[in-house]
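Hi R.,

Here's the chain you asked about this morning:
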Amino acid sequence: MKKIFLLCALIILATGCVNAKESSIPEYNSEVDGVSASEALHILYDSFELNERGTRDYPDDYAGYYLDGDFSQNNYVLVVMITDENSTRYDFFKGYENVRLETAEYSLNEMRKILIEMPSELMKELGLPYMGAQINMQQNIIELTFADTCTDEQKAIIDEYVKDKPVAVGYDPKSYPEVQTAV
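And here is the predicted structure, written out as tokens:
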């Protein structure tokens, strides 16, 4: 159940729901203690501007979010990751007991850019057995997975490529399907 809720929340935040008008930071009463973590997530989401594609643009100081706590007791908080601890952009959360702000080194925009560029560079240029990647907002890293059939030489290439990036590399024993092309 916890995974389903997290997946739904991530999909809502990542893909965006189209509102009729462009949104700015909402005017919510921060003195209200009864705002749940899921309601706070909607408040956060509504604070992001709507672009011409109908999706939300993340501000450059936003590094993501995660839910922390005891899900079996429905007792958890929304943890909003930001890169600038002095930012006043998220002050609308002051007084919310189910929201916590934490600082992170990399913004979500920075990690998304790396995530878009990295696999194509590693796969196309080096022919490495890439299996997938995801952004781990809680750890503020990109988790990159390759097949465990990588040679030691290939692993050294990968390690050199990611050494100055917020990337954790894993090797998965699952078989890697060969890419088929139509002739």
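One quick note: The beta strands are 49-50, 56-57, 62-70, 75-82, 99-103, 130-136, 141-147, 167-172.

Cheers,
M.
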